[in-house]
Amino acid sequence: MGALEGIRVIEFAEGVSGPYCARLFADFGADVVKVEAPEKGDEARAWGPFPGDVPHVEKSGTFQFLNTNKRGISLDVETPRGRELFLELLAGADALIENQHPRAMRQLGLDHASLAADFPDLVQISITPYGQTGPYSEWKGCDLNAFHFSGAGSRYCGRPDEMPLEHGTFSADFFGACTGATWGLAAILGRKRTGGGQLVDVSCAEAIAATFVGGQNIGGYVQDGRFDSRTGVGMPLAAPATIMPCKDGHVWMLALEPGQWKGLVKVIGNPEWAQAEIFEDMFMRGQNADAIYPLLEMWTLEHGKDEIMERCQAAGVPVTAVFTVPEAAAHPHLRERGYIVEIEHPLLGRLEYLGAPFKLPACPGGPSTHAPLLGQDNEAIYAALGLDAAMQDELRGEGVI
Description:
With about 400 residues, the chain is of the alpha/beta class. The chain has helices spanning about 15-25, 60-65, 80-90, 100-110, 110-115, 145-150, 150-155, 170-190, 190-195, 205-225, 260-265, 280-285, 290-300, 305-315, 325-330, 330-335, 380-385, 390-395, and strands spanning about 10, 30-35, 70-75, 95-100, 125-130, 200-205, 240-245, 250-255, 320, 340-345, 350-355.
């Protein structure tokens, strides 16, 4: 039994934030029905990457990752009959996950205010760049708009005296998705306490502001107007704390506390230079970083990153190899934990997927079925709503499904 067995979710979302939120439900046993527009489906179907770089509606790697364990139907919710069928789907649902523009949801009559009277126990998880209220709530935006609106672009990444750099793609969407899943589930389980369903209004910008920026900036800014900005590679005030080249790539080296520094010095052979007074504490080492880093680099370039990581770990020093994507995907640690799983796809064959990023040993979850083909479950789901084959053919001919 999945941990969320018995919970039914309707997903009316595309791209990253809503689908990944719904996947977190689906991977642990919730029955998630993904609703897509006929013919073109979720926009992520067009994103790729595709095998051989040949676009195909069923072969996008991004779409496959975001939509495991779901059932899927095609439905044009903008048509009167399509909207009626959508409302019938909601009648048996615990949650609606959507990341549509707030104005579009109001026009369709699918915003929380419109749905609450007919579906008092429904939890609506709305994930948008700016949230459902405020001056920017009506603005259009995507992941990078939300990320930089939070102030994170000023804090990360790049050198302090140069232009900011883009952060990893979809950071805001993924943080918004995890926020929506966490508090959406809380709202579902807490319905008796709150007297029914409610709106979970997730702003991806605020999720990033709280996690990327808030921890190290909000307190100082509120108290005395001080805040951190981009620092380039490593930490500017203490050392060693930076990325360093090695024989076969790079390592992230961190050895600030006395025990860490002594452990590192032991690992590299207790060289005479490490005994110098200017290297006694982490702040003095930071002030003399231009001297210490070339000396450390002479050692790191003689060793591989796995060897450096393992030897430092044994000495109590938090140094890690900077893995490439292929190296991480093939790493035995992840495979032994079952984080890399294989799933059969009717068009793509046997594929490797990332599993669930957390473990529930009593009721294991994670992906087990491939992302739905477009309209894959139309027949069964619409039959459950009372539509026989002839009625489905008629709606298909009208472009409703």
